[in-house]
Design a protein that fits this description.
The complex is a heterodimer.
Chain A (H helix, E strand, L loop, with lengths): L1 H5 L11 H33 L7 H19 L3 E8 L4 E6 L5 H21 L7 E5 L3 E8 L2 E8 L4 H32 L19 H11 L1
Antiparallel strand pairs in A: 1-2, 1-5, 3-4, 4-5
Helix pairs in contact in A: 2-3, 2-5, 3-5
Chain B lengths: L1 E3 L2 E10 L5 H12 L11 E4 L5 E12 L2 E8 L6 H8 L4 E7 L5 H17 L7 E7 L9 H7 L6 E4 L8 H18 L6
Parallel strand pairs in B: 2-5, 2-6, 6-7, 7-8
Antiparallel strand pairs in B: 1-2, 3-4, 4-5
Classes of the chains: A alpha+beta, B alpha/beta.
Chain lengths: 223, 194
């Protein structure tokens, strides 16, 4: 990767040593392999799921397809610790891998951080913030904008940022379709199916009052 | 409101002028009113300036009912960070307007309300958000009464509570009022909670 980076356009016609050329070729092969492996796995996951018939469960199937696709990204890129898809407001859609943070918490931080960069872009006269990367002392993070959300990849420090960035960009293409369809599925789910939430049954067979509203009202009555 | 998987996500926001008590109110509710088993995080997530005020937001995800998660934010009141304040407001289901009841803060309250009404006009879905007003700092002496502020600031049509964020006075009642509104809204859409 370093050899690749050193061969910037400003190098122009400068002679590159044989060793550097070999390293570049190796790096190109490595990146291409990761890209090919990634595309193959993700495409397979999507084909498997999209081949499933539609109907009332279609929304759920698309939700699963996002999770499976995210899993594929995680499996196909070396050094990745976690891959997360959040919607535009930071609500976690899919989370695969090992990350020591509540998904809701993570989603809120990431969405807000991205909004800040988007606002910065607006100020600088830029239309679209595509990718944000962060290099911490022990982790590399890339957040890739997608329709209606973003894909976040968290990698070990040893994982080159270039590879993570490329995986994020590739992931965007694969996930874009699924994310758009999920929005439709969610809308239909809410407007047509009138979701009835399940109730928790306590060990004694009685229904448990779980809501914060009930809790506060009871507390108020007790004074 | 959003449905993701088997969960409904609601967004509540504390909105008001700088130093009105938004963060203090959220902190009091988080640490005193909300049972631990409903908290999805142990501590409030806070993005603060180096001098301790809210830079971007304070945030707490709460499981208010089985499969209903409410994400509670308090936006920054600092005008310096106005650009991001409105971003935090987007897609809110409920807004706690935190009014600083001190006489000297009257003009600032008017300004922030103008900003809020502008956002309500311009932002998609924000006009559907439920609103509850907190007339805060009722423990201080140089303050306007809740009745005066309601009328002067044009907030008569919203539920209002005279509060003290430091002691938690009336904060639970305000939260109950908001939760009732949100529950009624969810039920009107066909969701059965508990």
């Amino acid at each position: 990767m370093w050899a690749l980076r050193n061969r910037s356009p400003s190098d122009g016609g400068r002679k590159v040593s044989d060793q550097a050329t070999k390293r570049s070729a190796g790096a190109i092969f490595f990146v291409a392999s990761v890209q090919r492996l990634f595309y193959t796995r993700c495409s397979n996951a999507l084909v498997r799921l999209h081949g499933n018939p539609g109907g009332s469960l279609r929304g759920e199937l698309h939700m699963k397809s996002i999770s499976e696709t995210v899993r594929s990204i995680l499996d196909s890129v070396p050094g990745l610790k976690a891959a997360v898809v959040i919607d535009s407001d930071g609500i976690p859609i899919a989370l695969e891998g090992d990350i020591d943070m509540e998904p809701e918490d993570l989603g809120a931080m990431l969405a807000s951080a991205f909004q800040c960069y988007q606002a910065l872009g607006d100020g600088l006269g830029q239309f679209y913030c595509e990718l944000v990367t962060a290099e911490f002392d022990g982790l590399n993070v890339a957040q890739q904008m997608m329709p209606r959300g973003s894909l976040v990849l968290v990698a070990e420090k040893t994982s080159p940022m270039g590879v993570i960035r490329m995986a994020a960009k590739n992931g965007r293409h694969v996930l874009s379709e699924a994310m758009e369809t999920t929005a439709e599925a969610r809308k239909r789910f809410m407007e047509e199916h009138k979701l009835r939430l399940p109730r928790t049954i306590a060990p004694d067979g009685k229904q448990k009052a779980l809501s914060l509203l009930s809790f506060l009202e009871q507390k108020k009555k007790k004074g | 409101m959003k449905v993701v998987g088997d969960r409904i996500y609601l967004k509540l926001i504390f909105f008001g002028t700088a130093l009105a008590g938004k963060t203090t109110a959220l902190e009091w509710l988080f640490y005193h009113a909300i049972p631990d088993e409903m908290k999805l995080v142990k501590e409030l997530r806070q993005v603060k300036t180096s001098f301790g005020q809210t830079l971007l937001f304070d945030f707490a995800p709460i499981e208010i009912s089985q499969n209903v998660v409410t994400r509670i934010f308090s936006a920054t009141g600092q005008d310096y960070y106005k650009g991001t304040r409105t971003k935090v407001l987007a897609d809110s289901d409920g807004i706690f307007i935190v009014i600083d009841s001190q006489k000297k803060a009257l003009e600032r309250n008017q300004e922030i309300l103008q900003e809020l009404w502008k956002c309500v006009e311009e932002m998609e879905n924000l006009s559907e958000a439920e609103i509850v007003a907190l007339y805060n700092k009722n423990d201080l002496e140089e303050i306007h009464s809740m009745e005066f502020l309601r009328e002067y600031l044009g907030l008569e049509k919203y539920d209002g509570f005279s509060t003290c964020a430091l002691t938690g006075d009336n904060l639970e009642d305000a939260l109950i009022a908001m939760l009732r509104k949100l529950t009624a809204k969810l039920e009107a859409k066909g969701f059965v909670l508990e």
